[in-house]
C-alpha cells in the first residue's frame, strides 16, 4: 500500500500543475546544482524537476526529450531520432546513435521518376519520406546510465499532453503557417488543425499522444515498436505510399559508438562520430583554423571569418565525398582528422582571395538538411554531463501525424543522397557514400559536443540548424576559447556559415557590414539569413561555478535544479 501511495504522490506533483505560465529564462548562474537548457521552458522545467527528485543528468535528459515531444512538436519527437554524447562523473565517455534507418523496402532510386529525375517532394513530404524512428529506443538505451525508472521519467510528458499547455506566439505562428501541409498530408483531422488560426495562449491538448506515452510507460520500448502503436504506424503508411513495416519497427536497434575525441588548445573535445558528420567537421575546422593562430584576431573580423570560412569549405567538401553510415562505407575518420592530411588540405589557403570550391573537392551536389532539429545540454551536481540533439528533419517532419497515436513522423529519408549530385532540402550535396540502402543510417550534421578541461566537463553545447549545426558549434567553441567571450555573447553573437556548395557565405542579420564588405572585395559571394541555429550552452568553470545560456533566437529556456 505504501508503494502505491508514494507512486501516486510522485505523479501528483505533475498532475495538478498548471501549464499556462510559460516562464522563459535565458541565463542562470549557479554552483553545485544541475542545469537544463532546451528549446522550451516546460521541457527544461521537466528535466529540472527530475534532478530535484534525485535523478542524474541522464534521467533529466530522458524526461526533457519526452517533454519536448509534447511541447515542441515541430522538432521534439518520438517519431524521429538523434544522437547523444555523454561524459560520466568517473570520466567515462560514450555516445548513443538512435538515428533513423531506411526501411527494408527502401532502394537507391526510390525517389527518381521514369526519366531518372529526383522527385524531392516525395523525399520531403508524406509517408514515403519517413525513416524508421529511433527516439524511443534511444531513450531506453540512455536509461542504463540513469537512476530512476522510465515510468517516472515519462510522466511529466504524459501530464503535458493530457492537460495541455499554452502556446507561445512563435508556436502559434508556426502551426498557422503549416496548416495547409497538415490538411494536405493527413487523411483525418489532427489536434494541430483548427478552423480559426491558433493564437498565443491557446491550449494544445494531445489526448492521443498521452495514450501513446502511457503504452510506453506500461510496456517499455515494445509499447512503441510493437503492439498497438506499431500497428497504427503501419496503418498510416498504408494510407499513402509509405513502406515501413512491423518488422522494420520490431528490429530497429540503437548503436553505441566510441566518441570522436581530439585536443584543442588545452581542452579535449568529445563529439559524435559517423553517421554524424558533425564530430569530424568540428575536428577539421578547429585544427585547420589553429594553423593560422585564430586567437590573435578579433571575433567576426575579416581575417577571423576568412580563416573559419575556408576551414568550413574544405571540411564540407570532405563531407560530400567521404562521409556516411560507417556500416556501409570505409570509415576514413582517422585520415580526415590527421594533422598531416589537414596541413596538406590547408596549403591552398590565402588571405588574398576566396578559394574556389572547385579547387578543394570534386563538385558533387549535396542534399539539403533540415534546420528543424532541437538540442538539450545538461549537467548535474555530481558532474555528469550530456549533450543530445534530436530531429524530425524538416519542420514537423513529413507533416504526417500517426492517426490514433498523435505524433508527427520524420522526413529523414531526405538526408540521404536522393540522387547522388542532387541537393537535399538544405542544399547539402551528397555522393555515393550517402546513397539509400535498406537498413542504412542517413548522414547527419548533428553535433552534440562536450568540451573537457582538466578531465572535467567545461562546455556542453549543441544547436539545431541542419548543415549550419557544425559551423555554429565551431563558432560557439572558438568564441569562448579563442576570442574569450562570455557564454551569453558566445551564443548570441551573429553567426555565419559556409558549406562548400553553394559557394556563398551565409551571414546572419546584424553581422558587421564592414567584414562582409571586406570579404566581397576578396571575391566572396554573400547571402543573408534572419537566423542561424539556436544554441544551448553550459559552461562550468574550474571553481565549479556554472552558467547556462539559452539562445535568444527562440523560446529556448534554462531551468535549474
TrEMBL record:
Q: Which reaction does it catalyse?
A: glutathione + H2O = L-cysteinylglycine + L-glutamate; an N-terminal (5-L-glutamyl)-[peptide] + an alpha-amino acid = 5-L-glutamyl amino acid + an N-terminal L-alpha-aminoacyl-[peptide]; an S-substituted glutathione + H2O = an S-substituted L-cysteinylglycine + L-glutamate
The alphabetized UniProt keywords are: Acyltransferase, Glutathione biosynthesis, Hydrolase, Signal, Transferase, Zymogen
Q: Which GO terms describe its molecular function?
A: glutathione hydrolase activity; leukotriene C4 gamma-glutamyl transferase activity
Sorted alphabetically, which SUPFAM superfamilies does this protein's record hold? N-terminal nucleophile aminohydrolases (Ntn hydrolases)
Which residues does UniProt mark as catalytic?
A: 373 (nucleophile)
Has keyword Signal?
A: yes
Q: What EC number is given for this enzyme?
A: 2.3.2.2, 3.4.19.13
Which InterPro entries does this entry report, sorted A to Z? GGT_bact (IPR051792), GGT_CS (IPR055262), GGT_lsub (IPR043138), GGT_peptidase (IPR000101), GGT_ssub_C (IPR043137), Ntn_hydrolases_N (IPR029055)
Q: In which pathway does it act?
A: Sulfur metabolism; glutathione metabolism
Provide the record's note on post-translational modification: Cleaved by autocatalysis into a large and a small subunit.
Q: Which amino acid positions bind L-glutamate, per UniProt? A: 99, 391-393, 415, 444-445, 466
Out of the domains of life, which is the source?
Bacteria
A biological process from GO: glutathione biosynthetic process
Q: Which residues form the signal peptide?
A: 1-17
The UniProt entry, under Pfam families, shows: G_glu_transpept
Q: Which family does it belong to?
A: Belongs to the gamma-glutamyltransferase family.
Kindly state the subunit structure of this protein: This enzyme consists of two polypeptide chains, which are synthesized in precursor form from a single polypeptide.
Q: What is this protein called?
A: Glutathione hydrolase proenzyme
Per the UniProt entry, what species is this protein from, by scientific name? Kaistella carnis
| Gene name linked to the record | ggt
Amino acid at each position: 500500500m505504501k508503494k502505491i501511495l508514494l507512486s501516486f504522490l510522485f505523479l501528483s506533483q505533475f498532475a495538478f500543475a498548471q501549464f499556462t505560465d510559460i516562464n522563459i529564462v535565458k541565463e542562470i548562474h549557479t554552483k553545485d546544482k544541475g542545469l537544463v537548457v532546451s528549446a522550451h521552458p516546460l521541457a527544461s522545467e521537466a528535466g529540472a524537476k527530475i534532478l530535484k527528485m534525485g535523478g542524474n543528468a541522464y534521467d533529466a535528459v530522458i524526461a526533457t526529450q519526452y517533454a519536448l515531444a509534447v511541447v515542441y512538436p515541430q522538432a521534439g519527437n518520438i517519431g524521429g531520432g538523434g544522437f547523444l554524447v555523454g561524459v560520466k562523473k568517473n570520466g567515462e565517455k560514450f555516445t548513443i546513435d538512435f538515428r533513423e534507418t531506411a526501411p527494408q523496402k527502401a532502394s537507391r532510386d526510390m525517389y527518381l521518376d521514369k526519366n531518372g529525375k529526383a522527385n524531392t517532394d516525395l523525399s520531403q513530404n508524406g509517408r514515403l519520406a519517413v525513416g524508421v524512428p529511433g527516439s524511443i529506443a534511444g531513450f531506453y538505451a540512455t536509461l542504463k546510465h540513469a537512476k530512476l525508472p522510465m515510468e517516472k521519467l515519462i510522466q511529466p510528458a504524459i501530464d503535458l499532453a493530457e492537460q495541455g499547455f499554452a502556446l507561445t506566439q512563435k508556436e502559434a505562428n508556426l502551426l498557422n503557417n503549416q496548416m495547409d501541409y497538415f490538411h494536405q498530408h493527413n487523411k483525418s483531422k489532427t489536434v494541430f488543425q483548427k478552423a480559426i488560426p491558433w493564437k498565443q495562449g491557446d491550449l494544445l491538448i494531445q489526448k492521443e499522444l498521452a495514450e501513446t506515452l502511457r503504452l510506453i510507460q506500461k510496456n517499455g520500448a515494445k509499447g512503441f515498436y510493437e503492439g498497438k502503436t506499431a500497428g497504427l504506424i503501419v496503418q498510416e503508411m498504408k494510407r499513402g505510399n509509405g513502406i515501413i513495416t512491423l518488422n522494420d519497427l520490431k528490429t530497429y536497434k540503437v548503436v553505441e559508438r566510441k566518441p570522436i575525441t581530439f585536443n584543442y588548445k588545452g581542452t579535449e573535445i568529445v563529439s559524435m562520430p559517423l553517421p554524424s558528420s558533425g564530430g569530424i567537421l568540428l575536428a577539421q575546422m578547429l585544427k585547420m583554423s589553429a594553423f593560422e593562430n585564430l586567437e590573435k584576431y578579433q571575433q567576426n573580423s575579416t581575417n577571423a571569418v576568412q580563416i573559419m570560412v575556408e576551414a568550413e569549405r574544405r571540411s564540407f567538401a570532405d563531407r560530400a565525398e567521404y562521409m556516411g553510415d560507417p556500416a556501409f562505407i570505409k570509415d576514413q575518420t582517422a585520415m580526415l582528422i590527421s594533422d598531416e592530411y589537414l596541413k596538406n588540405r590547408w596549403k591552398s589557403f590565402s588571405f588574398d582571395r576566396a578559394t574556389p570550391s572547385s579547387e578543394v573537392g570534386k563538385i558533387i551536389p549535396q542534399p539539403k538538411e533540415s534546420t528543424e532539429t532541437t538540442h538539450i545540454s545538461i549537467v548535474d551536481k555530481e558532474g555528469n554531463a550530456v549533450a543530445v540533439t534530436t530531429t524530425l528533419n524538416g519542420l514537423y517532419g513529413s507533416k504526417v501525424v500517426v492517426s490514433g497515436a498523435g505524433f508527427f513522423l520524420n522526413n529523414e529519408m531526405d538526408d540521404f543522397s536522393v540522387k547522388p549530385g542532387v541537393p537535399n532540402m538544405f542544399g547539402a550535396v551528397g555522393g555515393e557514400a550517402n546513397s539509400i540502402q535498406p537498413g542504412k543510417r542517413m548522414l547527419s550534421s548533428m553535433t552534440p559536443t562536450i568540451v573537457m578541461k582538466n578531465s572535467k566537463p567545461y562546455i556542453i553545447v549543441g544547436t539545431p540548424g541542419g548543415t549550419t549545426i557544425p559551423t555554429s558549434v565551431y563558432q560557439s567553441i572558438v568564441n569562448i576559447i579563442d576570442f574569450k567571450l562570455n557564454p551569453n555573447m558566445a551564443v548570441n553573437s551573429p553567426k555565419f556559415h559556409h558549406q562548400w556548395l553553394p559557394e556563398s557565405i551565409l551571414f546572419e542579420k546584424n553581422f558587421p557590414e564592414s567584414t562582409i564588405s571586406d570579404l566581397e572585395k576578396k571575391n566572396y559571394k554573400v547571402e543573408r539569413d534572419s537566423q542561424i541555429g539556436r544554441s544551448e550552452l553550459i559552461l562550468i568553470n574550474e571553481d565549479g561555478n556554472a552558467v547556462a545560456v539559452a539562445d535568444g533566437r527562440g523560446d529556448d529556456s534554462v531551468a535549474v535544479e
